[in-house]
Write a structure and sequence with these properties.
Structural class of chain A: mainly beta
Number of domains of chain B: 1
CATH class of chain B: Mainly Beta
Strand content of chain B: 35-45%
Distance between the termini of chain B: 50 Å
Number of strands of chain B: 5
Shape of chain A: extended
Helix content of chain B: 10-25%
Strand order of the largest sheet of chain B: 4-3-2-1-5
Largest sheet of chain B: 5 strands, antiparallel
Largest sheet of chain A: 6 strands, antiparallel, barrel
Number of domains of chain A: 2
Radius of gyration of chain B: 16 Å
Number of helices of chain B: 2
Number of strands of chain A: 12
Helix content of chain A: under 10%
Oligomer: heterodimer
Radius of gyration of chain A: 23 Å
């Protein structure tokens, strides 16, 4: 599985070959530098660690400075491991050219944090009761949490109010609409989890 | 930086079309290509532009007309390859960029003052051919 790290830029639309208007997410991805190669013999599994997005040297710890110096590159913000099919060497560059238009990729993002939310927004409950006939206070309520003397407790995993969002979300099998290799840009069909400017991983 | 990228994308996806300039309040005829099986024909939709919104590749405009005493609105993407051509029939004088108030008006009150001393695209084309 090969992949690349990128940043979500925003959304736009494209007229596709069949004349359909396709909503697209713009992702600026790469170029990523291979900063570490993990091998079966040494690490127990094989992978290549790639790095993306510049950061200042003064914000980099001494240990990480050494790590980046080994790959002879500048400090980077985001490090991710991918198990590339073809062997990678230290200092190799991964660009969006690994993707071609029309192929399917998975895109991983971190969804926008919504804070503490009720069950209607968080789990799609429909609330309790109506708006009229003297009812009040129950429109967005969760309803019953279970039976009474048996089991005499609330089951684990009961859907309740709580923190929503901020999760790792993978959108599977979305189409690559366009690749602008010279600008390190890639357009994928549909939406991708996360805010503008947040990191996304594109895998295939 | 993000704006630069967006501008680049818009330039790539929305090449400058030769559509005439028009704004809200103008009366236009949109010649729209329609595919029926293998055949392609051009349909006309004439009405008042009530808004233009968006930029670049996502810019669109809404045309409103009264058809059989029912209001009909159609939204066209500006970069649509299906737009054959657009004729500007009238240039209207309105004070807003989005004239939603036209939805509440019918009959005589739904008229828009017309700008004088301009050439419509149809007239310009006639002049060229003449």
């Amino acid at each position: 599985m090969s992949g690349i790290i990128g940043k979500k830029i925003g959304m736009t639309s494209v007229f596709g070959a069949n004349g359909k208007y396709i909503p697209c997410t713009i992702i600026e991805a790469g170029p990523c530098i291979v900063t570490q190669v993990k091998t079966l013999e040494k690490d127990g599994y094989s992978a290549a660690q790639i790095a993306y997005d510049e950061k200042k040297e003064k914000h980099t710890s001494g240990a990480m400075k050494g790590h980046f110096a080994k790959a002879q590159t500048t400090p980077k913000r985001k490090l991710v491991e991918f198990d590339f099919e073809e062997p990678k060497n230290l200092g190799d560059v991964v660009t969006v050219e690994i993707f071609t238009e029309g192929e399917f990729v998975d895109v991983v993002g971190t969804s926008k944090g919504k804070g503490f939310q009720g069950v209607v927004k968080r789990h799609g409950f429909s609330g309790v009761g109506g708006q009229t006939h003297g009812q009040h206070d129950r429109q967005r309520a969760p309803g019953s949490l279970g039976a009474s003397s048996f089991p005499a407790r609330v089951f684990k995993g009961m859907k309740m109010a709580g923190r929503l969002g901020g999760d790792r979300v993978k959108s599977r099998n979305i189409t690559v609409v366009k690749v602008f290799a010279e600008k390190n840009l890639i357009l994928v069909k549909g939406s991708v989890a996360g805010a503008k400017g947040s990191y996304v991983l594109i895998e295939k | 930086m993000n704006l630069n990228i967006l501008n680049f994308i818009h330039e790539q996806l929305a090449p400058k079309t030769k559509l005439p300039s028009f704004k809200a309040g103008d009366t236009v005829t949109v010649h729209y290509k329609i595919k029926e099986g293998d055949k392609e024909r051009v349909q006309q939709f004439q009405g008042v532009v009530i808004q233009r919104k968006g930029t670049g590749a996502t810019e669109s405009f809404t045309v409103r007309k009264i058809s059989n005493s029912v209001g009909v609105e159609r939204i066209f993407p500006v970069v649509s390859p299906y737009i054959d051509k657009i004729d500007v029939n009238k240039v209207g004088i309105v004070r807003r960029a989005r004239i939603y108030y036209m939805r509440d008006l019918t009959g005589k009150s739904a008229r828009i003052a017309e700008k004088k001393n301009y050439t419509t695209t149809t007239e310009a084309a006639e002049k060229v051919s003449a």
